[in-house]
Amino acid sequence: MTNTAEPALTTLKEVCAAADLDSRGAEPLRIAENQIWRLPAAGAIVRIAPPDRRETAAREVRVARWLADNGIRAVVAMDVEQPVVRANRVATFWEETPPQTHGSIADVAFALKELHALAPPPFDIGTLDPFVRVSERLTAAALPDGDRRWLFDLQTDLADRWAAGLPSGLPHGAVHGDAWPGNIVRADGERLLMDLERFSFGPPEWDLVSTAVRTRTTGAAAEDEYADFCTLYGYDVTDWAGYDLLARARELRMATYAAQHAASNPKWQAQAQHRVDCLRGRCGPRPWQWVGIM
User: Fold this and answer.
1) Which domains does the chain have, with CATH numbers?
2) Rounded distance, CA 175 to CA 166, Å?
3) 243 in helix, strand or coil?
4) Residue 54 · residue 83 · CB < 8 Å
5) 22-44 residue pLDDT tens
6) What is the pLDDT of residues 148-200, one digit of tens each?
7) Considering the entire predicted model, what is its pTM?
8) Are 288 and 219 in contact (CB under 8 A)?
């Protein structure tokens, strides 16, 4: 156990006691803004978040149960009263999943087609906000002041365009919110939806833009993979009039995510600055070959 994990372990023991789960032998998988722990004795995963995430945590649990009721394989919320609030933190509890690998682009297409075909759940899942926590990320970011101001201005411009309304497109419905192969994984040979934090009601194009950006912006996916993705889903979001807005919002999120984490880990500083340089037109045309962090 590292020194960093010791205070978090105290919180973990409190939330597990409240949920009547055995925390002996707990293993920290990630100790950051959101903590993730494995409980070998309980066969559980515990996610511990800041206090302002209580509503989000409660929604994640309801969404996971709704997906199960609709035959969509996703992370399974444990049958305990949750979320639990202790020590000014919010905890949720999940059944431990089998070993996972990132899904394929085809897995993402099939999972989204299945999800987007569902009628929205009969409870409030919130409305999609492409700019949630972007301001907080920029405030915490390790960036030169000029770049920070430029990104704030970009956020304002994109948010104004979003508020003005999107062009006509696909019918709005339930969206995953962060649909990429790290969140649509393979476990026991089947697709599994992970990380339901950004699940909400909004334009399905937001989910589809993620794969388009991985192809056209970051170079993480090949053009032939993207062509297959469009065929499997039955729609090419890059042909939609609102693509530029949502793609640039996704790029902004990815750049500010890296910049925020670079503030606490200098090894990501070069990648964070590279992403900002790309957005500012300093690195030529897309795709820019961004490298993942974390």
Assistant:
1) 5-96 (3.30.200.20), 102-279 (3.90.1200.10)
2) 16
3) helix
4) yes
5) 999 999 998 877 899 999 999 99
6) 999 999 999 999 999 999 999 999 999 999 999 999 999 999 999 999 999 99
7) 0.94
8) yes
